Amino acid sequence: MNNTECIEYFEKYLTEEKKASANTLSSYLRDIRQLGAYLDSNSEHGIQDASEADLGEYISWLRSNGKSIATVSRSIASIKNLYQLFCIRQIIAENPSTKLVSDKNTQKLPQILTSQEVELLLEQPECVDAKGYRDKAMLELLYATGIRVTELIDLNISDVNLAAGVIRCHSRNKERVIPMYPAAIKALSDYITLVRPQMIALPDEQSLFVNISGERMSRQGFWKIIKYYQKKANIEKDITPHTLRHSFAAHLLENGADIHAIQEMLGHADISSTQVYSQLVKKQLKDVYNKAHPRA
Fold it and tell me: For a disulfide at 52, which of 65, 69, 96, 180, Cβ 3.0-4.6 Å?
């Protein structure tokens, strides 16, 4: 079923079998429509074949965009109801929503890595083969620019300007130019000049980052790369591609960057989506104070 058919199927179930109230029906359908819209923009999958990773990233996206505890919790409930139904009806073989957990008492702030953890993660790819060069470039670029994983894999070779030290990123019919630090420029230059020509399947391939088949890297492929290097670095935090985006923003704020400049680099339409990182930095400072001050 396509997304529209999935939503219609769920609506019929809620209306005819569950006898859901008008408010419940409206809320659940709104949540599933929003999930469908997110998957359309950020995944190769639709509602029916969404993966556990897709749903986890979607809930992280809701939280990082400042959605309230109640909104996130209701969205999770809607998603769980949908996929439980699909499992019971044998529309899907496995339920991808089982690991989604609602927030209880406080707004969950995005998890970030410390500067030391970022350095440790970035040190993991070994530039001894094509995969190492590519992975090093992808991780450095993600942390250097804070772009979304979808934007990362959507980059074309023409979006890179090594001489200027910037990339051009396209998202939702908007374009933004983001600078890179020297180590990221070098990693990207090494990949483009030394490795990419041998990796691409066709001479006219436009994708910046390609898989072992020489075609555009997928979100799922990059998710596996992140998990591999997390394990290799022995970092206990649950790292996702979004974790480096969150870390990028929080570390810039910690070092005095203007929040409006960060908003521009992240591609947030609303400043409120960026202000969540201010809350995160304040919380970290408070935690440091409480742990370190002799009278705290």
Answer: 96
